[in-house]
TrEMBL record:
CDD domains: thiolase
Catalytic-site annotation from UniProt: 89, 336, 366
EC class (word): transferase
Keywords: Acyltransferase, Transferase
Pfam families per record: Thiolase_C (PF02803), Thiolase_N (PF00108)
Organism encoding this protein: Nocardia flavorosea
Similarity section: Belongs to the thiolase-like superfamily. Thiolase family.
Domain Thiolase C-terminal: from-to ranges: 257-379
The name this protein goes by in its record: Acetyl-CoA C-acyltransferase
Single GO term (MF): acetyl-CoA C-acyltransferase activity
Enzyme Commission designation: 2.3.1.16
Residue ranges of every copy of the Thiolase N-terminal domain listed in the record: 5-248
Amino acid sequence: MTDAYIVDAVRTPTGKRGGGLSGLHPTDLLAAVLTEVVTRSGIDAAAVDDVIAGCVAQMGSQAWNIGRNAWLSAGLPVEVPAVTIDRQCGSSQQAVHFAAQGIKSGEQDLVIAAGVEAMSVVPLNSSGDPGLGYGYPFGGQGWAANYGDQEIHQFRGGDLIAEKWDIDRERMFEFALASHRKAARAQDEGRFDTQIVPVAGVDRDEGVRRGSTIEKMRTIAPIRPGGIHNAPLASQIADGAAALLLASGNAVDRLGLTPLARVHTTTVVGSDPVLILTGPIPATRKVLDRAGLSAGDIDLYECNEAFAAVVLAWAKELAIDLDRVNVNGGAMALGHPLGASGARLMTTLVHEMRRTGARYGLQTMCEGGGLANATILERV
């Protein structure tokens, strides 16, 4: 079995809802990073074995295999295939897993894993909107027999996690404020410069709130009536895309490529679909066990900030040092363009590993339906 290496990783800035990227067609957003990752690496685009793209709301302008449509929109070779997958928020992290698995099996040498979500164009929950007349996803006799008619959505799940793990709301505000401050520092120090592809005149993440304070955060009403989380304690709706080029050891040697990291270990788990967002806890345990590593061996973590309580409960349960987590800010500051976030987090992680000389990085994120991916990277 061969190793799978990340050769390059790029992303667009994350645009705010209605912001600088909102006028772009989603295929053009994804095409920008596909073009850039091919150009930077210097490979012949026709040599790519497959393109695997994550996208959650696969309807409207994101329908009909946006991975393929974006590749063609970029003017890249028609002979290269592409597929679009949906593992909810972890879609493009799963794209990396599938790409690595294809390479490790020996069946493929060059695969692009990518993701996109234009949430200004295709709004949150569009594909599951019962108002469209296509039915509610959490319905049917089997679902009712197993889970009843209780609320099933991420906002309730985030609040249930805060209650179950006794996460103090003021601690959540502190964590959210730190996310913005870390992201602002990363922007000021140019930490994102090597990973961002400017698009439509936007060259930096738009969601970072430099003037935010805990006092301001407290004034925002909860997302759910009587709930715990409010908007500052949740990931921001955003537009964005990201892409990574993965290569086999043979392709690295044959094409003279310089890898950034090796895909060391991957896993995916299921978890309680009512709590929804607890999957990173068992996923992290499983991937560390499979890798033969401990939490203390990991130099840098990326745990998606879907809600403040998700990351804080994960860190509390696993005794993870928060100083190693989301060191350049997370989705509360940088945004969460659903299908793109897995690739965005991995892009940020691999560049930070390169910048700091970290040996191991671990990425995990909660996903709709009670799921989570986890990936360990090793710098080479």
